[in-house]
Amino acid sequence: MNTAVKERIQQDFQDRMDRDELENCMRCGFCLPVCPTYIQSGYDETQSPRGRIALMKGIVDGEIEPDEDIEKTLNECLGCRACEPACPAGVNYGQLLEEARDIFNQNKKHSLPAKMVRKTVFDGLFPHQNRMENMTSLLHFYQHSGMQKMTRKIGFMKLFPESMATMERVLPDVPTRKEMRARQKYYQHENKPKATVAFFKGCLMDTMFMETNKATIELLQKVGCDIVVPDTQNCCGALHGHAGEKDKAKELAKKNIAAFEEVNADFIITNAGGCGAFLNDYDHLLKDDPEWADHAARFTEKIKDITTILVELDFHKMPLKLPEQVVTYQDSCHLRNVQKTFEEPRILLQSIDGPHYQEMNDAARCCGSAGIYNIVHSELSMKHLDYKMEQVKHTAATTIVTTNPGCLLQMKLGIEREGLSDKMRAVHIVELLIEAVDESKRG
Amino acid sequence: MEKSIVQRLKQIVGDQNVETSSMSLHSYSYDATPGFRKTPDAVVAPANTEEVAEVVKICNEHNIPITSRGSGTNLSAGTTPLQGGVVLLFKHMNKILEIDEQNLTATVQPGVITQTLIEAVEEKGLLYPPDPSSMTVSTIGGNINENSGGLRGLKYGVTRDYVFGLKIVLPNGSIMETGGKLMKDVAGYDLTRLFVGSEGTLGVVTEAILKLVPLPAHKKTMLATYEDIDDAAKTVSAIIKARIIPATIEFLDQPTVEVVEAYNQVGLPTDAQAILLIEQDGPESVVTSDIEKMAGICKEFSAVTVNIAKDEEEANALTTARRSALSTIARLRPTTFLEDATVPRSQVAPMVKAINEIAIKYDVKICTFGHAGDGNLHPTVPTDVRNKEEFHRVEQAFAEIFEKAVELGGTITGEHGVGAMKAPYLKLKLGEAGIQAMKGIKQSFDPNDIMNPGKLFFEADQEEVSHR
Ligand SMILES: Cc1cc2nc3c(=O)[nH]c(=O)nc-3n(C[C@H](O)[C@H](O)[C@H](O)COP(=O)(O)OP(=O)(O)OC[C@H]3O[C@@H](n4cnc5c(N)ncnc54)[C@H](O)[C@@H]3O)c2cc1C
Ligand code: SF4
Ligand code: SF4
Fold first, then answer.
1. Largest Cα–Cα distance of chain B, in whole Å?
2. Hey, is B177 helix, strand or coil?
3. What is the largest CA-CA distance in chain A?
4. Where is pLDDT greater, at B60 or A443?
5. What are the structural domains, with CATH classification, of chain B?
6. Residues A284 and A357 in one domain
7. Residues B206-225: what's their mean pLDDT?
8. What is the SS3 assignment for B204?
9. CA–CA gap between residue A295 and residue A283 (Å, rounded)
């Protein structure tokens, strides 16, 4: 990083970082014990939330120059936001992180992610057989799910440097899903009508995890929801936002707000913890946009995770049954730490007759999926995953339940890596719940 | 720092355990104390006592300051490396070496997190009582060097009461062991006690033998609210007079209740002038009878409401107000000063009233909560260090609070330590003779003043180093 770049970054930090929020951190360290990167690094302050905030503040105050080390620790943060609920001062770490990354990224356009990914791919991936395997199994999912096409369509690959984008294109073309059938826009309630909801389908969920969306809608119908699926909705923008592409995220946010305002439902339902959390942050994302701030605030108020509405509408009191098995739950970081939803999935799982629910140690700790973290920081990500799989094994679970597509993929990857695919499966909670409904009908 | 010295340090602890990058140095330039910051020259993480000793020897040879650092949660600028030099970390020295169920002791390295130890001994049906509110983060090394207290202090005492023996690297690099797994030991000066609370100014603690007690079988929680703070104070005295020593008696004053209720809506009467949160532990029959007696005493002294928790869930609900006090106050303004002026139990009410008057006098917000049972109060000030004028008033208010505490027979700090933060006030408590005695001790252990220099003793020319 040359002096001119450093100066620009510093200037941007001074202009753009929220100084009050930085000052709010009282350096008490209460966030340290919950931070996966701090623990993983063997208690290195520079890899902790308190340390990262101090570094951001140091740049703003001119006490330290921005450099590669700092850029790296910011990038290696999982963005899991476990530090937020642990913080007595209520510091909004996620928003500080997003802004700081955006500044580094904008001042190093292209060269930064290019370097990062090139390093991962060429130094970190190809020379290592096992990592290649991980990567390939990821690509396998990627190709066989329609995600590839979708990611091209939403311009997701633009986030990656040329190297990665090329790799993506030169991959042998696996048969992609046929043009998806024009899907229904309205679904009617079953039983007594209780609410009208709009469904946020999410770009991954709508392709790769189509079954999950189907199950979600069925569950909503069962608890008496009329469902609208606005067809002008978009990707939530989370991946862009977290990777330092804030402007693109804002564009997507506006489109989504407009799409959902048209249908004016009681709630907006999501089934992906990561998307939900980002939708929840639209008010912050657009707070300085006079035209959109109010709209964003109203939009945000309506966001609800599928597990929340199911519990609110007493789904867990319906007859639910499954064969005997041990079930465990891996929290979606953003569902837990941003949307503060962690009891509902557990209530739902424990209401199923038959299986034994076994809480895993450190269920709240990030599995290392973290958006695109498992691609750009593959090695670190696998360390987090290894720890996670250890905890899973202790529960003797055969079914790992998640509430977010990224986590679901990561858990699947974990099962693969451990060679446990014949004994263990990972599912999204709505799929298990639908199974339980069906099973109980069978008697 | 000279390259050759860095090189020698690396030879001792390994390359990866000496950090000199600007990022690392910045990250160890602060602790939880607002307003203090100073960049060290190197951050060193030794793996064992011998490595510590080697590092200390080099530093002593070259007059390089050493600041031992646990998790950096202290509130007295105790780990701010005011004169640069080496910051010593114990991240590799974080093992519980032994839990001895016959002697009821635990032998630990200094980097063990307090909560980790508490959980490990609980699994064996034992209790390590010192439980500072920061225990999920703080280390045993930090606890010992600050002589930390906690909620259970009233009945169980503080860290000092649980340290049987220490392994210490002295400033000249020699290794000393004090005490042992001994209930009784009068072989010479009590060096163990001297080192407890010494704030890293006399040597480096590299191992500790800690006392454990049997885990009480039962616990019960109750909450009482008062219209008059004097009634709450009288209740505390009456409970002790009735020969009941509860595990905790926590206290919240009116400004605290007001902000806690405003932000959390836990159902507290906002006009309550004081709230007492009382817990007792022990055998079930004793706990039940103690709690009933204490509820009676609360009512006798005009408590407006008295609630006894029926189960753990209700107990948790009752403790919400106390638990959320700090976080609620911390959210009001960017900077939070958490102080720990302490008075004899009987002086709690006059002290709280004095604090509230001082708040009005200097026009600052002060919320006071704390451990009524042992007179340890936490006057807490939400403010903004960037506002120089207001910050000055806050400092004046604190100076007056410390004076008042000493006047009432109390002390400037009950558990957070002196560090650099309270060094200017130490004389208030000790007088010139006390300061000279302490300086003598410091001088004889650490003639080159390499161990955490700039702490405890205030030199007028040292003027707050990086007070922004
Ligand atoms: C929100 C909050 C709540 C708190 N609540 C309480 C409370 O209830 N009760 C209480 O007593 N304190 C409390 N504290 C203060 C603080 O947590 C304690 O002082 C704690 O013991 C510090 O532990 P640490 O590991 O962070 O030590 P540090 O802050 O890293 O160090 C503290 C001191 O110990 C020295 N030191 C550390 N390790 C060694 C070693 N191995 N050898 C020699 N010297 C060493 C350091 O040089 C320093 O002087 C609180 C702090 C915060 C931020
Ligand atoms: S977001 Fe997660 S990884 Fe990042 S600092 Fe917070 S707790 Fe640590
Ligand atoms: S818990 Fe909050 S205030 Fe404390 S150090 Fe972490 S971010 Fe800062």
1. 72
2. strand
3. 71
4. B60
5. 96-214 (3.30.465.10), 218-324 (3.30.70.2190)
6. no
7. 96
8. strand
9. 8
Residues A183 and A302 in one domain: yes
- DSSP secondary structure letter of residue A408: H
Across the interface, whether the CB atoms of A70 and B72 are under 8 A apart is answered no
pLDDT surpasses 60 at B319: yes
**Pick from B356, B360, B365, B376: nearest CA to B328:** B365
In a domain, A118, yes or no: no
Q: Are residues A134 and A160 in the same domain?
A: yes
Q: What pLDDT score does B269 carry?
A: 82
CATH number of the structural domain spanning residue A67: 1.10.1060.10
- Rounded CA-CA distance B373/B345 in Å is 6
**Per-residue pLDDT band at B225 (split at 50, 70, 90):** very high
Question: What is the atom index within ligand 2 of the atom nearest the CA of A78?
Answer: 3
Which residue has a Cα nearest atom 4 of ligand 3?
A28
Q: For residue A420, what are its two tokens?
A: 């446990």
Residue of B nearest to A23 (CA): B334
Give B92→chain A minimum CA distance, Å. Answer: 8
What HEC string does A292-315 produce? Answer: CHHHHHHHHHCEEEHHHHHHHCCH
State pLDDT tens for residues A331-354: 999 999 999 999 999 999 999 999
Residue of higher predicted confidence among A235 and A353? A353
- Whether residue A201 is found in the same domain as residue A289: yes
B263-287 mean pLDDT: 88
The 10s digit of each residue's pLDDT in B396-442 is 999 999 999 999 999 999 999 999 999 999 999 999 999 999 999 99
Structure-token pair, residue B175 = 């290794």
Alpha helices by DSSP H, listed for B338-387, are 348-361
Domain boundary among A247, A280, A310: A310
Band of the pLDDT at A131, cuts 50, 70, 90? very low
**Does residue A164 sit within a domain?**
yes
Residue B466 has pLDDT above 70, yes or no: no
The answer to whether residue B467 neighbours chain A at the CB level (below 8 Å) is no
Q: Among all chains, which residue has been given the structure tokens 């939400």?
A: B382
Burial of A203 (0-12, 13-18, 19+ CB in 10 A): buried
Ligand 2 centroid from CA A82, angstroms: 6
Alpha carbon distance A275, A242 (integer Å): 12
Burial class (CB in 10 A: 0-12, 13-18, 19+), A284: middle
Tokens 């804030």 -> residue? A246
CATH of the domain at A292: 1.20.1050
Report the distance separating Cα B67 and Cα B78, nearest Å. 8
- pLDDT single digits (tens) A186-216: 888 888 888 999 999 886 666 667 788 889 9
The interface pTM score, or ipTM, of the predicted complex is: 0.93
Residue range(s) defining the domain that contains residue A216? 178-310
Same domain? A242 vs A278:
yes
Whether residues A168 and A182 share a domain: the answer is: no
Number of Cβ within a 10 Å radius of residue B296: 13
Q: Does the predicted model carry a pTM greater than 0.90?
A: no
Q: Which of A46, A61, A65 sits opposite B27 (nearest CB)?
A: A46
For residue A240, name the pLDDT band (cuts at 50, 70, 90).
confident
Query: Which one of A26, A30, A45 has the shortest CB-CB distance to B34?
Result: A26
Tally of domains in chain A: 4
Closest chain A residue to the Cα of B336, Cα to Cα: A26
Contact B137 A67 (CB under 8 A): no
- Identify whether the C-beta of residue A91 lies closer than 8 Å to the C-beta of residue B336: no
Q: Strands, DSSP E only, in A173-266?
A: 186-187, 195-199, 225-228
pLDDT in tens, A298-308: 999 999 999 99
Does the beta carbon of B248 sit less than 6 angstroms from any atom of ligand 1? Answer: no
Cβ(B23)–Cβ(B73) below 8 Å: no
- What is the percent of chain A where pLDDT is above 70? 81
Q: How many Å apart are CA B190 and CA B88, to the nearest integer?
A: 26
